[in-house]
Amino acid sequence: MRAIEASRIVQIPDDVELTLEGKRVTVKGSKGILSRDFSYASISMELQGKSLRIWANWPRKKESALVGTIYAHINNMITGVKNGFTYKLKIVFSHFPISVKVQDGMVLIENFTGERNPRKAKIVGNAKVKVSGDEVVVQGINLEEVSQTAANIEQATKVRRKDPRVFLDGLYLYEKSEGMEA
């Protein structure tokens, strides 16, 4: 039996401004502005003062799930413009010393398992990447850009054609946190 309505309410903090135009949500905060279009979704949205109501009438399973997904996306946007996100990756090597550089929208991983050509990982959107010692820090206000950049870096150092139990070299994510360090 289907539910009559699936709904979630996003509470908007005082230091964040949220605007709704159709199904386009724009969030402004101290760290910046994020905007996202949810017009693909078969749900309804309504701004009521300092809260945003997301709902679907007579939802099927997909629409019910979509209400929760969009609720989570908007909460992540609010967290991003308030605090930002930080992902930290550790440079691990036992055989060949790896060097990591940031160069025009790419992260270059040199001397990975002794390879001559550097492996490349794309920096997505406005994510900022810093290399300090044996640590790579990815920061930004958009969670999807930060996490995809960290995933690209981790995937670039995937060991191929060798025993992964022996060759544990690579860049590995070890910490996810809210907030951006200066």
What distinguishing features does this structure have?
182 residues, alpha+beta, Outer Surface Protein A, domain 3, 2 domains, 4-stranded antiparallel β-sheet, 3-stranded antiparallel β-sheet, 2 helices, 13 strands, elongated
Rg (CA only): 20 Å
The beta-strand count equals 13
Number of helices: 2
- The sequence of SSEs as H and E is EEEEEEHEEEEEEHE
Structural class: alpha+beta
CATH H-level superfamily of the largest domain: Ribosomal protein L6
Low-confidence stretches: none
Based on Cα principal axes, name the global outline.
elongated
**Span of the ends, CA to CA:** 52 Å
- Stated plainly, the CATH topology of the largest domain is called Outer Surface Protein A, domain 3
Task: Tell me the layout of helices and strands.
Layout: E1 5-11, E2 17-21, E3 24-28, E4 33-37, E5 44-48, E6 51-57, H1 61-82, E7 85-92, E8 99-103, E9 106-110, E10 119-122, E11 128-132, E12 135-140, H2 143-156, E13 170-178
Antiparallel strand pairs: 1-6, 2-3, 3-4, 5-6, 7-12, 7-13, 8-9, 9-10, 11-12
Tell me briefly what this model is.
By secondary structure, the chain is of the alpha+beta class.
Structure description:
The chain has 182 residues and is of the alpha+beta class. It folds into 2 domains: 5-82, Alpha-Beta Complex (Outer Surface Protein A, domain 3), CATH 3.90.930; 85-178, Ribosomal protein L6 (Outer Surface Protein A, domain 3, Alpha-Beta Complex). It has helices at residues 61-82, 143-156, and strands at 5-11, 17-21, 24-28, 33-37, 44-48, 51-57, 85-92, 99-103, 106-110, 119-122, 128-132, 135-140, 170-178. It has a 4-stranded antiparallel beta sheet with strand order 11-12-7-13, with helices on one face. Strand 8 and strand 9 (106-110) form a beta hairpin. The longest helix has 22 residues, at 61-82. It is elongated. The relative contact order is 0.17. The mean pLDDT is 94.
